[in-house]
Amino acid sequence: MRADPPALDAIANFLIERGSPGVVIKKRQVQGYYAQGGAAVGIRGDVRRFLRGIKAIYPDIDEGGVSSRILKDRNWNRTWQKFFTARKIGRQFLVCPPWLTPPPLRGRQLITIEPGLAFGTGTHATTRGCLEFIESAAEHFGGGQFDALDVGTGSGILSIALAKLGAKKVWAIDNDPVALTVARKNLLANGAARNVRLSGAGLNQIRRSFSLVVANLTAETIFDLADGLARKVAPRGFLILSGILHQKVRAVIRRFAGSGFNVLRRKREKEWVTLLCRRLRRGSRFRVQGSRSEAGTLNFER
Fold it and tell me: Could you write out the three-class secondary structure of 8-49?
């Protein structure tokens, strides 16, 4: 696809997280390779939605310039698998594809993710930011159990992380049937299926609130769902927002400040920003230990 040069990195990251084992960036073009040609139609649709979402920032993007073709048959398994390795994320996680023997965990939690057709392999900046902030929020519960909502679960990686860090129940929702299939397989592979309720329900169909809500979407979708997301966070609960291009982060912060949320941490990696927010009681004050751009221990004055 063709795009304005500053947008190429954002598009390349999206293609990789959407399951591409390799991306080539040229002067004004990004080429993503996929092992399963039959998935091209769904991928093209996702890419076009993503391009529409960032067109306000990169107006020279050609939404109609998305094309695909089937390449000559070859041993794709060996070719694309070499692009994925085990990755340490945050202080507690090691994300590894199933065909590799993971290195020594050294106290880390292992998450096994099959790279496929759903968002969330641990290679994207937004997924890493969410995992780091899930660690920070979970520490606040002192190792005790909590409940959580994962909006747009994709591969299920964030729900798996929540379950491994003590969530007694996680609701994971996604409107993509392919994502639900992939997530279900990953939940089973990681022993997290018992703790996660996987559903294609819409956000407004959920009639309860949670101690922690995670939404790794796009700024546009976050704005569309803002009222629903705010209502799903319990009093004094945490909200993690990601998938936000840095040009739009101030608008997102203003939107949720109006709903009674303060930003505890902000992490930027390349074009992407992840926010850790908390719903505060009226008159509450908060103190955050460490840099705004890094995950760390949260200290609060009540």
Answer: HHHHHHHHHHCCCCEEEECCCEEEEECCCHHHHHHHHHHHHH
CA–CA separation, 213 vs 240, rounded Å? 6
One domain for residues 208 and 151: yes
What are 211's two structure tokens?
């101690």
User: pLDDT category, 298, cuts 50, 70, 90?
Assistant: very low
Distance CA 163, CA 196 (A): 7
Pick left, alpha or beta for residue 58 (phi over 0 → left; psi -120 to 50 → alpha; otherwise beta).
Answer: beta
Task: For residue 232, count CB atoms less than 10 angstroms from its CB and return exposed for 0-12, middle for 13-18, buried for 19 or more.
Answer: buried
**Residue 62 domain flag:** yes
Burial of 189 (0-12, 13-18, 19+ CB in 10 A): middle
CATH code, domain with 246: 3.40.50.150
Q: Domain span at residue 152? A: 118-301
- Is residue 214 within 8 A of residue 187, CB to CB? The reply is no
- Which of residues 22, 56, 77 is at a domain's end? 77
pLDDT in tens, 81-127: 776 789 999 999 999 999 999 999 999 999 999 876 667 788 888 99
Write out pLDDT tens, residues 4-13.
666 777 787 7
Given a cut of 90, is residue 214 above it in pLDDT?
yes
Q: What share of the chain is helix, strand, coil (3-state, %, to 5)?
A: 35, 25, 35
Query: Under a CB-based contact definition with an 8 Å cutoff, are residues 11 and 63 in contact?
Result: no
> Between the CA of residue 295 and those of 21, 117, 234, 273, what are the distances in Å?
28, 29, 22, 13
Q: b or e along 248-275 (b: 16 or more beta carbons within 10 Å of the residue's beta carbon)? A: bbeebbebbeeebbbbbbbbeeebbbbb
Amino acid 254 reads R
